[in-house]
Amino acid sequence: MSIAYHPLIEADQLADWLANPDIASPLLLDCRFNLADPAAGEQHYLREHLPGAVYAHLDRDLSGTRIPGQTGRHPLPHPEDWQVRLRDWGVNDDTTVVVYDQSNAMFAARAWWLLRWAGVSRVQVLNGGLDAWHGPMQSGADNHPHRSGTLTVSCSPDWVISSKQVQDALPDLSLLDARALPRYLGEQEPLDAKAGHIPGARCADFTGNLDANGHFREPDALAERFASVASQTNLVSYCGSGVTACHNILAMTLAGYPQPRLYAGSWSEWITDPQRPIETDPSKEPVL
Question: Which of 31, 203, 239, 246 is catalytic?
Answer without folding.
Answer: 239
